[in-house]
Design goal:
Elements: E1 2-8, H1 10-13, H2 24-34, E2 39-43, H3 54-61, E3 67-71, H4 74-78, H5 83-99, E4 103-107, H6 123-144, E5 147-148, H7 152-160, H8 174-198
Parallel strand pairs: 1-2, 1-3, 3-4, 4-5
Helix pairs in contact: 2-8, 3-5, 5-6
Length: about 200
């Protein structure tokens, strides 16, 4: 059975979903099952985590996962963590996972300019900050051999549709997680095939 570990922040935990089954992990396991691959998931992520927490999460996981889904960046942005520091922590975590032979799927920083709490006058600044961090994360993913998720379609939908956010207007709703899952699931299926090929 394929073991999928979820690392990172509240998006990996599923905060905001109406039901635990609506979170990212269960959605990915269900998608793998529909594709004929039995899987289970375990969450090593923590709500509020920044990239600095990733190496500790990876250490806690040990050799359990065959495949790691890393969702990180939002809290680095909200806490104004320097990009160089955030990507150095991400790089360390991804290299540790890859060094154990674990396939990695990276879900990079979201575009926080779509969040309702951001004042209109600051939206462009927040959009640029999000894009800068995301671009640096993508470089790390490519350098470490991680699979990369394109979240641009999901981000555009979130900017248009408030129903994709939960009541806190920051985390996705169940519908928002469904949209995120649609972006992540195909990449996870590709990574799962790589796990099988290496076995």
């Amino acid at each position: 059975m394929l073991r999928v570990g979820l690392f990172g922040d509240s998006l990996a935990v599923g905060v905001g979903a109406s039901s635990p089954q609506d979170g990212l992990g269960p959605r990915l396991v269900a998608d793998l099952a529909a594709a004929g691959r039995a899987a289970q998931h375990r969450v090593f992520a923590a709500s509020g985590a920044r990239s600095a927490a990733l190496p500790g999460q990876v250490a806690a996981a040990g050799d359990w996962p065959h495949l790691a889904v890393v969702v990180i960046g939002a809290n680095d942005l909200t806490h104004l963590v320097p990009v160089a520091q955030a990507v150095a922590d991400l790089d360390a975590a991804l290299r540790a996972l890859r060094g154990r032979g674990i396939q990695v799927v990276l879900v990079p920083a979201p575009d926080l300019s779509s969040v309702a709490h951001v004042p209109p006058a600051l939206r462009e600044l927040v959009r640029l900050a999000s894009a800068t961090l995301r671009g640096a994360q993508e470089e790390v993913a490519r350098a470490t051999g991680a699979h990369l998720v394109d979240t641009s379609t999901a981000s555009a939908a979130l900017a248009r549709d408030a129903s994709l956010f939960s009541a806190d207007r920051f985390h996705p709703s169940s519908a928002g997680y469904a949209l995120l899952g649609q972006a992540v699931a195909p990449v996870v299926r590709t990574a799962a095939r790589a796990v099988e090929d290496a076995a």
